[in-house]
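Cross-posted from the bioinformatics board.
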Amino acid sequence: MISFWTLFYKELLRFWKVSFQTIAAPVLTALLYLLIFGHVLDEHVRVLGIRYTAFLVPGLVMMQVLQNAFANSSSSLIQSKVTGSIVFVLLPPISYGAFFAAYVLAAAARGLMVGLGVLVVTAWFAPLQIEAPLWILAFALCGGAVMGALGVIAGIWAEKFDQLAAFQNFLIMPLTMLSGVFYSIHSLPEFWQRVSHYNPVFYMIDGFRYGFFGVSDVAPQNSLAVVVASFVAVSSLTLWLLKRGWKLRA
Amino acid sequence: MGTAVSIVDVVKRFGALTALAGVSLEIAEGEFFGLLGPNGAGKTTLISCLAGLVRPDSGTLSVLGRDVGRDYREARRLLGVVPQELVFDPFFSVRETLRIQSGYFGLRHNDDWIDEILHNLDLTGKAAVNMRRLSGGMKRRVLVAQALVHKPPVIVLDEPTAGVDVELRQGLWQFIRRLNGEGHTVILTTHYLEEAEALCGRIALMKQGGVIALDTTANLMAAHPGGSLEDVFVQAMNR
């Protein structure tokens, strides 16, 4: 257990030491989204009966939770691989389960910290309403863990920074941006509504938003089932790859 | 005296390249053992197999009786490896690096031993300095310190003195000799043959993935009366 706690602590310390880049910057990005979209649309749009700015806040919070959880584990691993310092975690007797848990939990922790930061700074622009805090916590934790595990796979798979950027820009970004952060899927044409239901990130955003307003496109228990199933699937794959030493041990 | 490291018929191929072509070696507990050969001979691949960084295609390796594949956690606990590449984690200071490395090996409150290592490697004054701000030689010292944080009974040094000054070399060898005298097994690869000659009790010469000579340093030298280990090395490689 000491090796797990040490690796977890080291991962926390790693992003904390560059918190201006890893926490403050994504909070600012979310704030800019809110200022621009909120300013343009707040007077004209209501979604699920809620003012647009208020509707947007939980989506932005969850988007940053997910993107930063992914960024944490993936960037830590690719950086260690490129610099060669990955040997420091491959030489000691760290089990693959401890390795997985440490990276995923640290990734989720960074996601939650950024999410909390976004929530705090956006509270100036829309009154904070919380209907079901446990749903908020459950979706933030599970969503962050799914993306943290996906980040482990991407970080191990990528051999260069541009490969990781491709994973991030062509998979993670579209999945999160097209998941209902900025809109309710009921405003989409029927075909795209159906497509959205195949995107697991849609359920993370929708369930998370339910915790704030008590309304959602899909029942929160169904969304949580999809998110938990996604976590089990991604985690199983990650653990299998780690056990095999895929791309880590020649 | 028991066996510290057992390597039996290890084969490793990378595509068409055979890096290790059935290597077998036994190293006794407490030995100071030299693994010499030109670049590409397979020394680092063999060490990587022992450390679990590379998985052999066939053959077995064990550290103090622990199979590096099956009992990988036990085997790794018994081994301290100084990698050849000058690698470091740029986020941490020297002391943080060593505390973290101790934790990976399941050790908390290891500061007494960390202080002793820092002292012996002349790093005490650099303990609070970030790794990025150290010179190449200082980073190499930290790599040695990282390999020793858990007091491993078997220490593997893969070219530990490459690019470091004479003062560090002398300090490092004094410290490693002390550890060897206390019973730690030491396996050394180096291109500085005079170091191997002075330190190693037994030497294996490797070429093209195989062991071409294995004997005590004295016996190898006896083949070249009045000559040096370099003469032995050159003749073996040209054979």
